[in-house]
Specification:
single chain; 244 residues; alpha+beta; Immunoglobulin-like; 3 domains; four-stranded mixed β-sheet; 2 helices; rod-shaped; disordered N terminus
Length: 244
């Protein structure tokens, strides 16, 4: 009996809502304008609950965001949308972005730009027509934007070697927003290498070889370091032998 009373009250409430919003009352000179989304919500509820006399499902909400599962750097954006099920439509939405964007009253607010590093709680609240309110929240971590800083540690300075000798090249990199890309330029000696530590490189011919390492991060910020390798020609040992 109690369940029937609840269903009857819900049916009456929704029908009254429909009469006032979708049909208009006898004292109204014009039919009020109803947002399409609200009209669709009410129609769906009527079809699934009033006509079938089914109990309303529990109101449930969830935040959907492109920020979940990835690193966001200051100045970047994330897209937010909401999922809602159950309850009694129409719904009232409220998004709170912790000051990174104005509060929003729509279900899918879209792109939000985070201009400063920090930890921000995002709240999504939904209230149905019966006054029940449910919320979901998520914490977004915004990382400070930095530029890469590179240093060639081997060799640590300009170097002079004889022909045919090998040198081990390596570098250290700090900062930057990963992923980082590397490019070692060995001038005319060989094609560039795209790794942090290229290892041993052989210099078979005499000459001067500027070696340059450039590191770029995901934002396009870059930094370079260079060292010069001078390769000297091998001179055969000569000796004078006196005739006997």
């Amino acid at each position: 009996m109690k369940a029937l009373c609840v269903r009857s009250l819900l049916r009456i409430s929704v029908l009254v809502f429909l009469v006032h919003l979708l049909v208009g009352c006898s004292q109204c000179s014009e039919k009020p304008e109803v947002p399409v989304e609200v009209e669709q919500q009410v129609q769906t509820y009527v079809e699934t609950h009033i006509e079938t006399e089914a109990e309303p499902e529990t109101l449930s909400v969830a935040i959907d965001s492109s920020a979940k599962g990835r690193i966001i750097y200051e100045g970047e954006s994330a897209v937010f949308s909401g999922s809602v099920s159950g309850g009694i439509p129409p719904y009232v939405y409220d998004w709170d972005f912790s000051g990174n964007a104005p509060r929003s009253g729509i279900k899918d607010p879209g792109e939000v730009i985070f201009s400063s590093a920090g930890s921000y709680e995002i709240l999504f609240s939904v209230q149905d027509s019966s006054g029940i309110e449910v919320r979901d929240s998520t914490v977004i971590e915004i990382v400070k934007d930095t530029s890469p800083l590179v240093k060639i540690v081997s060799p640590g300075a300009d170097t002079v070697i004889p022909e045919g000798l090998s040198i081990a090249f390596s570098a250290t990199v700090s900062g930057g927003n990963p992923p980082l890309t590397y490019e070692w330029d060995f001038s005319a000696l060989r094609a560039p290498l795209h790794k942090e530590d290229p290892g041993n490189i052989t210099f078979p011919d005499a000459g001067s070889y500027p070696v340059r390492l450039t590191v770029r991060d995901r934002d396009g910020d870059e930094h370079s370091a260079s060292v010069s390798i001078t390769v000297e020609k091998n001179i055969p040992n000569a000796s004078i032998t006196s005739p006997e």
